[in-house]
Amino acid sequence: ELKVEQNPLFLSMQEGKNYTIYCNYSTTSDRLYWYRQDPGKSLESLFVLLSNGAVKQEGRLMASLDTKARLSTLHITAAVHDLSATYFCAVDMGADKLIFGTGTRLQVFP
Amino acid sequence: KAGVTQTPRYLIKTRGQQVTLSCSPISGHRSVSWYQQTPGQGLQFLFEYFSETQRNKGNFPGRFSGRQFSNSRSEMNVSTLELGDSALYLCASSLAPGTGPSPLHFGNGTRLTVT
Fold this sequence. Notes:
heterodimer, A: mainly beta, B: mainly beta, 7-stranded mixed beta sheet, globular
């Protein structure tokens, strides 16, 4: 059974600090997504990672994919309050079937 | 360009009833998939439709069903509702296969409460 594990599950960090969220998965896949969800809202696509070694950056967020290690990371640089949300990684199993991680709830405080 | 539209936004039903949720994909998107989100189980894949055909199905009982119409709009139905069916149901759409990799675009969801 495919498992997608994120850690940490909860992250409280101070503004200006850096941190990394990890996403480990247990099966072969060359495509991984990161989504953001604000409370009571839907999922917003952040990154699409399509191959081994892929790295994408947008603002203070950078995502990478290592398919050999079955590991993706989401790095937060100089966190700001607006980044407070829940972040999900999702492994693409084909035919729009995504297996989501448990989510990481991020809180950024002053 | 309008996003994925789901109706209704909120539903309250009692055990044993059935419910139908509706989803209109982004214009031009032909694949529609459904996900269930609960605090305990997280986000789980229900099923996916393309060209009115179910291509993939998650591990849910037969009480959960869906369909897609020729205009790509989709509905999902849950019969004989149970308390555990209370969840946020998210619909997502994407371009047809073969048009290149793209993320799923999610709607705002339908929050179903079963009492």
